[in-house]
Design goal:
CATH superfamily of the largest domain: VC0802-like
CATH architecture of the largest domain: 2-Layer Sandwich
Number of strands: 7
Helix content: 25-40%
Oligomer: single chain
Number of helices: 4
Length: 134
């Protein structure tokens, strides 16, 4: 799974425009964060069809960066995030982005962007790594 990051001018309606483009194409957004800093808008997205989303957004004038995400499923309990983040810290793996994708039936599914994805996948192999397919 990929994270798509859009960095653009901070102006009213950016998120409305991006979500309209994807919605018109019948693409669901699984995870999203949006921030504004120093006149720039930064929007991070997780979608099922990252290639299609990237193409659509680029065709509409957005510069899109992509990065790999690791999907993890953990018991939905206090301290679960601490357990995962501590394991990563002890292995000197930096978490660059994190999304809570869903909570359901006692479990949470999250998407992590890390600086060492192969090492993180191996380290977190007990977290039931998931792959989403269309």
């Amino acid at each position: 799974m990929k994270q798509l990051t859009i960095v653009t001018e901070d102006k009213v309606g950016v998120l409305a425009d991006i979500s309209y483009i994807l919605g018109k194409a019948k693409m669901s957004i699984m995870g999203v964060s949006a921030e504004a800093y120093d006149g720039k808008a930064i929007v991070n997205l997780v979608v099922k069809d990252d290639k299609k989303a990237q193409d659509l957004l680029a065709a509409n004038g957005y510069k899109v960066y992509e990065s790999d995400m690791i999907m993890v499923k953990v018991k939905d309990a206090p301290g679960a995030l601490s357990e995962i983040s501590t394991k990563l810290k002890e292995a000197n793996i930096s978490v660059q982005s994190l999304y809570l994708i869903m909570r359901c039936k006692g479990y949470s599914v999250g998407a992590l962007k890390v600086d060492k994805p192969k090492a993180a996948k191996k380290l977190l192999s007990d977290c039931s790594l998931l792959q989403y397919t269309d």
